[in-house]
Write a structure and sequence with these properties.
This protein has five helices and no strands. By secondary structure, the chain is mainly α. Helix 1 packs parallel to helix 5 (122-149) and helix 3 (69-93) runs antiparallel to helix 4. The protein starts with a helix and ends with a helix.
Length: 151
């Protein structure tokens, strides 16, 4: 059950982080369209890698995997970090005031990597990565609200 809840938190957090703002600012200029379009190779690849890692995590948890839990944990963490850094770069390029402060994204990336480094049981590892992403979503929400108020 912990694995299911963790995977749910991971997927919903990644979705929210992507759609938290419109990307129209990036496609107003010809250079922005190019960067926006080609950077999505990394976004799509990292999302696919997250899905594959979550599927492998289920196999590890059910003892049907032909790969170690450690490798799956690092794959999941790496995919999440690539996603966070690519999306953070896109938001920064689009002039997002929240993205000018990269601390929340970097903190979440470090937390996810720390969970992979510790390497608890697979279900706990996925849950902790999901919780770290939820913390990132909450930080972004607070910063979005502050930016909207101008404080």
């Amino acid at each position: 059950m912990l694995l299911v809840v963790g995977a749910f938190l991971v997927v919903l957090s990644l979705w929210w982080l992507y759609f938290r703002r419109e990307h129209v600012d990036l496609v107003e200029h010809r250079h922005g369209v190019w960067v926006f379009g080609y950077s999505h190779y990394l976004v799509y690849a990292s999302v696919a890698a997250v899905g594959a890692a979550l599927a492998a995590a289920v196999e590890v948890a059910t003892h049907d995997a032909h790969v170690s839990a450690r490798a799956v944990g690092w794959l999941l963490a790496g995919a999440i970090v690539v996603y966070l850094l690519t999306l953070g770069g896109l938001h920064l390029l689009g002039g997002d005031p929240v993205a000018r402060c990269p601390a929340p994204g970097l903190v979440v990336a470090v937390l996810v990597l720390a969970v992979a480094a510790v390497g608890p049981a697979m279900s706990v590892e996925v849950l902790l990565m999901g919780v770290a992403l939820v913390v990132g979503v909450a930080l972004h929400h607070v910063l979005d609200q502050r930016a909207a108020r101008g404080t």
